[in-house]
Amino acid sequence: MPKPRIVSLIASSTEIVCALGGEDWLVGRSHECDFPASVKRLPVCTATKFVTDGTSYEIDQRVKAILQEGLSVYRVDAKQLNQLRPDIIITQTQCEVCAVSLRDVEAAVCELIDSKPQIVSLQPNALAEVWLDIMRVAEALCIHARGRTLVQQFQQRMAAVADAAHALPNKPRVACIEWIEPLMAAGNWMPELVQMAGGINLFGEAGKHSPWMTWEQLCEEDPDTIIVLPCGFDIPRTRQEMPVLMQKPEWLHLQAVRNHRVFLADGNQYFNRPGPRLVESLEILAEIFHPEVFSFNHAGTGWQLL
User: Which of 27, 119, 126, 204 would give a disulfide with 185, using CB separation of 3.0 to 4.6 Å?
Assistant: First the structure.
């Protein structure tokens, strides 16, 4: 059987393909696919329609302006796809702001002349659906058994953390901030990860999109621990944006601030990607919540103290 030619248009699905042992089958990627680093050699098939520099507020305004016109925030290069002749294209329907949408891909595929690829669309709204998506990719690649083994390995690693955390006292009340201006809490799989890591999640519901929240709501809940992990931001960029919060008069009165329990995490590489590295994301949370018990050596790279 010839090797399938795969174009992955989501960073998380690129990681899934590679974790399944199919990196050599990848022939194209999105502009955001950057892990493992070796995938950067692949041709890029997408681009943003807006400038990604600037503050979180400026980015939010640009995205909203495009979406209000009923447009997608990304471009799909149909000509590039045609040249790559993929057998399989992997995309998603979970969030049109986070990655190329199914609608964009279907429109591009309609322009393809030589290739009639299978479109695999992922929709990970909760942790269980991440495992289903891994299996969906494995089945499309005809490596079902490999997918099942991989999912079992991930689940076992996460269960070991969750079991150890469950027995611990003094579970912190946690606010996960997924966007800084305007404020957005973390939803989808994040509430599950917080609970599994031995914390009490204050904002956002498992399986539901990340909700907006107000500064007043954050102050009213007054969390023990605040983790800032903006979608698409690494730690240095998040740190650069933190004055937006730190300049608010009430900031110094929050108990998480007074007790030095404000952490910055790499949302772009870990928490925002519904793929294999959600396992590491859980480990990061466990280290933050219960450093006396958990040490996975993610400090400094996956998370830092503000």
Answer: 204
- The whole domain housing 260 covers 165-305
In CATH, what number is assigned to the domain containing residue 240? 3.40.50.1980
Q: For tokens 């689940």, name the residue.
A: 155
Domain tally, the chain? 2
Q: According to the 3-state scheme, what is the secondary structure of 203-240?
A: CCCECCCCCECCHHHHHHHCCCEEEECCCCCCHHHHHH
Distance between CA atoms of residues 184 and 249, nearest Å: 19
Residue 116: per-residue pLDDT: 78
Residue 192 lies in a domain: yes
- Does residue 196 share a domain with residue 98? no
Give bridge partners of residue 8 from the DSSP assignment. Answer: 29, 90
**Residue 104: band (very low, low, confident or very high) from pLDDT cuts 50, 70, 90:** low
Residue 65 lies in a domain: yes
Going by their DSSP bridges, the two strands 173-179 and 184-185 should be labelled as antiparallel
**Rounded to whole angstroms, how far apart are CA atoms 161 and 192?**
13
Same domain? For 82 and 170 the reply is no
Asked whether 42 and 73 are in contact (CB, 8 A), the reply is no
Cα angle at 156 between 13 and 198, to 5 degrees?
Answer: 95
Report the predicted TM-score, pTM, of the whole model to 2 decimal places: 0.90
248 has pLDDT over 90? yes
